[in-house]
């Protein structure tokens, strides 16, 4: 194979939710992608247990949400460190977390990826990477005797908390080490008299037993100041002993489907990009899995990165666009690490923490506090640092009802093709003229919106006169009533879509 020959545009290491979502986004952006996965098959382990509002919205933006709603079960409440939160039904069309196991999420994403023409190469482990001016060569250990190489323009490590890609790229992973050990397993619990146990506090930790699937319980035990060795295997016997230490009984536990361990180590990649290598999902950030934020953050990393990387590969935008991925997503993970450290602190055993939980619990009863914490967990309140003073700029676009000449629609339906949308709600000739300058790169949609728009962390605002929506559903430019600032619109179009096409 010649130096310039490419096997594919982008190689993604890891076929978990982040890698699969990124592969789908890249295909929607018209680039070729190959996913390499170390494991021979999907594990079938349930792992993460749900998706929050913003993740559900991103799937809705692509027109595939129904597949997930058909499998999952909406939950009307969430929690911050085991303290119950309520979600505001007016903030999103999908305001409640969807209880759906990671194994089902991966299956559905893999089916969608196959429809889009993504190739997934299993039993292929990344062992080396070499970058040069034109691309990156990825060395693989495969089931075959001879090592394989893949040559691509870019490599994205979506290969988990112990990411090989991150290590090979020389990206530091600073943070705080674990102070506790939690064990988690899906087992049969014949002697559990209650329907479920949620975060029961004990002198040395806490435990939960939740029915996730008929006949099976997810048992989670957390013990503080016991930190397991990194490579020590997690066993059914350890889970049983841990439950006996905490609860005084193992509830007749038997028939484990899987057992795993996690801690409260919180680390974040110092940078999300090193040349032609990028990181997303757990490869970029690990934390205590409190409030169900990890899988969601990874999928949202993928939706932020996918359209940008596709645009750079197509030659439409300069490579510097990729720097906005770190600029926008690194602070998001930083905040999740921060709130999960706080949640881990609130679960520590002892009288001081009991008192702190009481105070915190009484504060959550205040609407503003509940709304603030819920916005953080759902990621509906994220605002990327974009230029512009309209309250929507940088935020995710609300899924408002629209009337168009073709009939009724809603904002998120306009994003099914993963292209930028210039939505004109006042029939402005100036907006249409600017859209014409970027013809073929942006979809101009003229519509009407009769209602106020509800924006999490802001409240109700009048519908904007016009707005530029990026493929990830975040607003790059918005205009209130009056003459639109077309020079700011041109700047936004040039920034996110690349220079005006010539001709």
UniProtKB/TrEMBL annotation:
Superkingdom assignment: Bacteria
Gene3D superfamilies: 3.30.70.2450, 3.40.30.120, FAD/NAD(P)-binding domain (3.50.50.60)
Cofactor: FAD
Domain (FAD-binding) ranges: 7-339
Keyword Oxidoreductase tagged: yes
UniProt cross-references to Pfam families, sorted A to Z: FAD_binding_3, Rng_hyd_C
InterPro entries with a match to the protein in the record: FAD-bd, FAD/NAD-bd_sf, RIFMO-like
SUPFAM superfamilies with a match to the protein in the record: FAD/NAD(P)-binding domain (SSF51905)
Molecular-function annotations in GO: monooxygenase activity
Entry coiled-coil feature ranges: none
Entry keyword annotation includes Oxidoreductase: yes
Keywords carried by this UniProt record: FAD, Flavoprotein, Monooxygenase, Oxidoreductase
Name the UniProt record assigns to this protein: FAD-dependent monooxygenase
Taxonomic lineage: Bacteria, Bacillati, Actinomycetota, Actinomycetes, Kitasatosporales
